[in-house]
């Protein structure tokens, strides 16, 4: 019998957010994956004061902060809107 490898049937969900070093944004998914990206890819996060960055919260399929006007969704992190979109396809 064939066993699937990888994350084919896993819906990605954010578990935690951190800023491990200057200029980097790290997201841990509930399935154990960890994605590290440059903050420069997310201008709205760059505007969040460093002291507030630890005070993130989940909102729908994404993450935000009190001083952030946007929600950063998991498809923005993974980069495939068709596969990971937070809104149903038409």
Question: What is this structure's SSE topology?
Answer:
Blueprint: E1 14-18, E2 24-29, E3 34-38, H1 43-46, E4 57-59, E5 62-64, E6 72-73, H2 74-78, H3 81-84
Antiparallel strand pairs: 1-2, 2-3, 4-5, 5-6
Give a summary of the structure in a few sentences.
The protein is built from 3 helices and 6 strands; from the N terminus they run βββαβββαα.
Can you offer a commentary on this structure?
With 90 residues, the protein is of the alpha+beta class. It has one domain: Uncharacterised protein PF10387, DUF2442 (NE0471 N-terminal domain-like, 2-Layer Sandwich). It contains three helices and six strands. A hairpin with a 4-residue loop joins β2 and β3. The chain is elongated, with a radius of gyration of 14 Å. It starts with 13 loop residues before the first strand and ends in a 6-residue tail after the last helix. The mean pLDDT is 88.
Overall helicity: 10-25%
Strand content: 25-35%
Q: What is the subunit arrangement here?
A: single chain
> What's the architecture in CATH terms?
2-Layer Sandwich
Q: Any idea of the CATH topology?
A: NE0471 N-terminal domain-like
Roughly what is the average pLDDT, rounded to an integer?
A: 88
Describe the sheet with the most strands.
3 strands, antiparallel
Shape: elongated
* Lateral strand order in the biggest sheet: 1-2-3
SSE order, one letter for each helix or strand = EEEHEEEHH
C-alpha Rg (nearest Å): 14 Å
Number of strands: 6
Q: Give unreliable regions as ranges.
A: none
Highlighted features:
single chain, 90 residues, alpha+beta, NE0471 N-terminal domain-like, three-stranded antiparallel sheet, 3 helices, 14% helix, 27% strand
């Amino acid at each position: 019998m064939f066993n699937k490898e990888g994350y084919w049937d896993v819906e990605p969900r954010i578990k935690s957010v951190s800023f491990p070093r200057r200029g980097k944004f790290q997201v841990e998914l509930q399935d154990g994956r960890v994605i590290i990206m440059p903050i420069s890819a997310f201008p709205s996060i760059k505007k969040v004061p460093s002291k507030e960055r630890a005070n993130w919260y989940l909102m729908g399929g994404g993450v935000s902060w009190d001083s952030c006007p946007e929600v950063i969704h998991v498809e923005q992190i993974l980069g495939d809107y068709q596969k990971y979109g937070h809104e149903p396809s038409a």
